Amino acid sequence: MLGSCLALAGCGGEAIADAAALDAASVVDVPDAGAGTHDAGTLDAGGTPSVHCALDPSCPELTIEGDPPAVSPFRGYGDPSLERDPTTGALWLSYSWLEAQVVGTADADLTVVTHLARSDDAGRTFTFVRAINATEVVDSPSGTGRGWWFHEVSTLARGADDWRLVTLDYLDPVGAGERAYLHFARTTAAEPTGLGDATERWLGVSSSLAPLTVRHDVASIAGLEDCAVLTEPALLHHEGTDYVAASCVVVDASGRHPERERIELLRETSDGLVRVGPLFDAADAAGLGVDRLEQLDLSIARDGTPIAIVTPIVDGGDPMHRGCVAYELEDLASARVRRDADGHAIPRVRITADGTVFGPGLCTYDATSESGVLLVITDFDLSISPPRLRFSLRATGIHP
């Protein structure tokens, strides 16, 4: 979530209003883009259903009972991930909880941890259950300096036999400095309430993590050798297979190569992780008039179709993040996105929103949640002291 945000003087969010009640009337089904009409907004220039989420009660805020935002300029909720329990019918939501903290005389650090909440009313309201991890100052594994362990971009899934949750973890130095030791951490449990009890370093580039170790080395996965790091994980269990998607960042001695960056899909086997193929690349971003696509969420639409929801990003833009776009996945087993005869990915719906600086995006979806697509809106003002840095979850009511 904060890959771009952390370069700013500060970022964050807070709850802006009390939780708004969602009822069946607020839920809007968006037909396939090929249908040509819908009742959720307008059609953009390409004929895609387009909906706008405003920073007001028309796009109601979702708050978490028992887990108020931090009392700091940087606060709120981000990185939501929804998953339904097929046994109980409960909806589970993992999300980032944001806070600014200070150690000694150092400048304030923006810290991120993962929390878990539950809904027993089809996503109308959520109640805090537990913290999955914690942020604390530790000695660097290198033996030099100290830093905060960050845990962000959580993704939650119910597998065949257990629940699993993956986060992007990294060490952020106290005060100024570069993040290091980026990797995916995974926790599994028989029930969601057990998530966080035990966590492993699951996937990362071993050469950049020493002396830490990970179960799966990105460099050993055929087709990912050029990925300097994987970010923005997304889990999905579908038809007996466990998938994980992630953004591949390409950096070598000559610098970063955004033209080669893409969102890759992997599947888990008894022998480890295997690359399925790229879902989206730089050409797909260019087709939307943006620099890159990130923050993927994998889900199943109400019609049973696997879908991918991404956030378009304009580097240096205001806002940087431009909402969310949902695409149909024709075949997960081959990482095939629905495309036209010219190879252009065909959106099912595009959701824009209010939001400044960091901007709106970071969407998640579960077909059984009356919230529809959950979207994060940011409300920043860096011209005041302390700055206003607020993130909020918004229930769009849209079902792609």
Short synopsis of the structure:
2% of the residues lie in helices and 48% in strands. The chain is mainly beta.
CATH topology: Tachylectin-2, Chain A
The coarse overall form would be globular
Q: Strand count, sense and closure of the main sheet?
A: 9 strands, mixed
CATH architecture: 5 Propeller
What structural class results from the helix and strand content? mainly beta
Q: What's the helix count?
A: 1
Proportion of residues in β-strands: over 45%
Count of β-strands: 30
Assign the CATH class: Mainly Beta
> How many structurally independent domains?
1
From the N-terminal CA to the C-terminal CA, the straight-line distance is 23 Å
Structural description of this entry:
With 400 residues, the chain is mainly beta. The protein has a single domain, classed as Tachylectin-2, Chain A (5 Propeller), CATH 2.115.10. Helix content is 2%, strand content 48%. It contains one helix and 30 strands. The strands form six sheets. Strands 4, 5, 6, 7, 8, 9, 27, 28 and 29 form a nine-stranded mixed beta sheet that branches. It is globular and about 55 Å long. The model is unreliable at 3-40 (pLDDT under 50).
Summarize the helices and strands and which ones pair or pack:
Layout lengths: L27 E2 L12 E2 L5 E5 L7 E2 L1 E2 L8 E11 L6 E11 L7 E11 L6 E6 L5 E3 L6 E13 L4 E11 L6 E10 L9 E6 L11 E2 L11 E10 L2 E9 L1 E2 L2 E2 L5 E8 L2 E10 H6 L4 E9 L5 E8 L10 E8 L4 E2 L9 E7 L7 E4 L9 E8 L6 E8 L2 E2 L1
Parallel strand pairs: 1-30, 3-26, 5-9, 6-29, 14-15
Antiparallel strand pairs: 2-3, 4-29, 6-7, 7-8, 8-9, 10-11, 11-12, 12-13, 13-14, 16-17, 17-20, 18-19, 20-21, 22-23, 23-24, 24-25, 24-26, 27-28, 28-29
